[in-house]
Amino acid sequence: MEERILELLKDYVAVKTHTGTEMERDATEFFRSYFEANPYFRAHPEQWGSHPVKDDFLQRRIQWGLVKGQGDETVILIHHTDTVDAEDYGPLKELAYTLDGVKEPLREGQVPVGEEVKEDLQGDTWIFGRGASDMKGGGCMALALLEEYAREEDFQGNVLLLGVPDEENSSAGMRSAAYLLEELEEKYGLHYQLMIDVEPHERIHPERFSIYDGSIGKVMPIVLARGKLAHTGQIYAGLSPIHMMSALVRKTELLGEFVEREGTTTAPGPTWLYLKDRKYLYDVSLPATVGGYMSVLPLTRSPKDILERLKELSVEAFEEVLKDSRARYEIYRNQDGLDYGDMDHEAQVLTVDELKAQLLRDIPKEVLEAEEWAITQKIQEGAYDRVEGSFRLMEFYLEQWKNRDPVLLIGLAAPYYPAVNNGKLPSREKTDAFVSELADYIQREFELGLDVQNYFTGICDLSYAMFTDPEDTINYIQENMLLWGKEYEIPLELIKKRSMPVFNIGPWGKDLHRMTERVHREDLTRRAPKILDYTVRKFLGQNPQ
Q1: Cβ distance 544 to 156 under 8 Å?
Q2: Measuring CA to CA, how many Å separate 230 from each of 109, 217, 288, 391?
Q3: pLDDT tens-digit map of 289-311
């Protein structure tokens, strides 16, 4: 199997599948060739295919293949087919798509690298190349195992392989996979037992293998501040949305109360990823609006919990701005300055669902939906990115609102990744017992310890394997996420219906998304495939050797 994994990897890495581009579609040809060359899938052409991503303007597809054995118990193996581009390789860019193609130039010092990389460049312990680690290496492990299962007579259980696009962006492939899983479940009578991702892991210690039994979440609150317009020479007659937003950023950046510890994982504090005024031309007036969005990485908090707390913090920040502004206005007044009246603004903060509820008292729902579809079309045409489209929609809502006072409008921006962990499911005892067995197996087979990380912190497609929050959380997300059901959606009801346990079992990798991306050869070709195979067979009720 070792040679087969490397053979597949050589061909797979050579296919450019840059995320968010039409090149992602080139994975289809790689998989078509793979399935057509395999005797099992030639004999069962209905058991493999290419499933379209729902409403995808890039027309990307999910690749799938099913080894159908005895019974209905099924294990799903997933990996993402897209990679980041190779621009960071500079003059070595074309070599990025050949296994170890960059090794010699890096050894020669054509591009400066650190001491750890220099050490890993010696010998053949590490394999370099774009996607070798993240994550075509893991994908090739799964493909090689699928061939093994297809060759076995009287195979017990079923193994379904999925190659999904767009993981590096917003997981459009995995979100659409929920529909494919439903279709295959009904067609073949499958009962999904487990989903395994084969993302690479970062070793805590060289002598300890790492797996994950969950994945961290990602929630993106988006905020639009509307102040009160004024010329800078009459500044006290207005209210700056820059001041409003900067106070909120200052209050929430890296806020300790959002740092969560759950099991073996500590989630970092929130951070703002974008903050900009909405002016398109220079003038000497205050900007009308300022927009920003932040990243929160939860382990247990729901989007509703996060947004409700952010609203409270926004009120506090707004009140601090008003208090400071009034005090500074008094300094101006006491210097015989002009009087612009009292700053009698109130700290007004609304969530998107609250504002829309007010709008719908006066405006037909069709008016709002028409603008939502118009913005969606602009995004699909490339005129706006998703963030710009979200801000445009928030501005439209405020324009339709009769109230013209300063306000902070808070919503959710895509993408949303639910936090998942096996401990949230009724099958927790079974998965915990398996982990103990796996640790014994790894010690016997490889003389390695096992580290079980409760959340994969790199964010991955396993977020869409289960959803355990109550129905009101789904409703809250739908009502507050900009462009939900138009440009972006997650079939949360479908995912919740068939929530299943997860593991991430992949090879040791380093420097993902960087020019020095590499995967550990022995992990890729021997250790991780055996550990993956052991896991698959245990959950299918087999007795792995």
Answers
A1: no
A2: 57, 41, 9, 22
A3: 999 999 999 999 999 999 999 99
